[in-house]
Amino acid sequence: MTPGRPVPPPLAKPILIDSSESPAATTLAAAFGATSADSGLVPLTVARRAPKEDDVEIAIEFCGLCHSDVHATRGEWRVPPYPLVPGHEIVGRVSRVGAAVQDFAPGDRVGVGCLVDSCRECESCLEGLEQYCERGNIGTYGAIDPRNGDSITQGGYSTSVVVDRRFVLRVPESLDPAAAAPLLCAGITTYSPLRYFDVEEGDSVGVVGLGGLGHMAVKIAKAMGADVTVFTTSESKFDAARGLGADHVVLSKDADAMEAANRSIDVIIDTVAAPHDLNPYFRTLRLDGALFQLGLPADDMPPVSPGLLIRRRLAYAGSLIGGIEETQEMLDFCAEHGVASDIEVVGADQLNEAYDRMVAGDVKYRFVLDTSTLQEPSERADA
Q: Helix 212-223 vs helix 324-337: angle between axes, to the nearest 10 degrees?
């Protein structure tokens, strides 16, 4: 883990080019991405549109590495459109704004999370739940962008990005920009179900798993005033859990320890992305408790016993990131309470190694790319 970081050098100046395929000039940005499922991450150059009237152009400083980036670039969920530049935990400074943008100005520190657009018209969008857009939200990378000529979105392993102002977030200056980057995915993913359940002082929160999501769940739940219990299969994580603020640590494979936790928890945040038996965790919940599933296993989970749910009126739910308004609320909350991710900053030449280490679980707890280490863009875009 990197306890500190040097002040990065200025970002490379983008190359402005005239495009014969578009009436507006575009900007070429240096990037790293995949050209096939087995290419690994390689240097690329991406074309960014000139800001339209509602757009914000961002000079990216840092971008978090999410495990979903690994799945996406390696084609483990679906075959994506290559070349693909991942990254949806973006923090940087505004470099330009469109003519109609009044809420952001050059120099502002801002962020972009997992979404860059939605239909803006369905019931979910109108309620500020863009992540559940009924027509399908537009992801930060690998998605067709219908408002911009059906171009494919390219993410934050890059020196710049252009995003509609409605999906740009203000990052408080009190937050370290590198440590704030993972808040835009891991932070909001864990904050949203805790907020939905209205966790407050005196409540008891359980966290299953202590990785990128789990460590944020511990920090945020503690900041909300909860009594936090971490469930782990490894005794080696006991000290780490307590260091993050956990009040109790339970070895989940110890039947006696799990029995001792019976009816002690109000809400559980399950961050494990591998198949595992949930029934022992349901037994730790109190009446009207809930278990939120955040980890997404590739294979089927063992069956849940309906009797456990019925006897205590328990809820088993899922949760997907958060809307833009809630994500801004989360950033402000984290700034107020001094919450940020534990990170290791990496350069572009370390990205493939970082991916392998993520798969092996060898990071405490999130990698963040310093985009000043990217190469100069070439004279022609790859994507």
A: 70
Q: Check residue 381 and give its pLDDT.
A: 86
pTM of the prediction? 0.91
Structure tokens given for 379: 């004279």
Alpha helices in 35-155 (DSSP H): 67-73, 123-126
> What digits encode the pLDDT tens for the residues 200-230?
999 999 999 999 999 999 999 999 999 999 9
> What region, left, alpha or beta, does residue 235 occupy, with left being phi > 0 and alpha being psi -120 to 50 degrees?
alpha
Q: Write out pLDDT tens, residues 89-116.
A: 999 999 999 999 999 999 999 999 999 9
Nearest to 34 by CA among 91, 75, 63: 75
| Distance, C-alpha 241 to centroid of its chain | 21
Could you tell me what percent of the chain has a pLDDT over 90? 89
169-170 and 109-112 as β-strands: parallel, antiparallel, unpaired?
Answer: antiparallel
Tell me how far apart the alpha carbons of residues 53 and 64 are, in angstroms, rounded to a whole number: 28
Measured distance CA(248)–CA(261) in Å, rounded:
10
The first and second tokens of residue 161, run together, are 């990005």
For the CA atoms of 28, 33, 39, 44, the dihedral, rounded to the nearest 10 degrees, stands at 20
- In angstroms, the CA 277 to CA 282 distance is 10
Q: Is the dihedral of CA 340, 344, 347, 350 positive or negative?
A: negative
Q: How far is CA 31 from the centre of its chain?
A: 19
Helices of type H across 113-204? 123-126, 177-180, 186-196
DSSP string, 293-360: E----SSPPPPP-HHHHHHHT-EEEE-----HHHHHHHHHHHHHHT----EEEE-GGGHHHHHHHHHT
Please name the residue ranges forming H helices in the chain. Answer: 67-73, 123-126, 177-180, 186-196, 212-223, 238-243, 255-260, 279-282, 306-312, 324-337, 351-359
Whole-angstrom distance, CA of residue 328 vs CA of residue 352: 31
Which backbone phi and psi does 34 adopt, to 5 degrees? -110, 145
C-alpha torsion sign, points 137, 217, 198, 64: negative
Q: What is the spatial distance between Cα 203 and Cα 221, in angstroms, rounded to a whole number?
A: 9
Q: Is the pLDDT of residue 18 over 50?
A: no
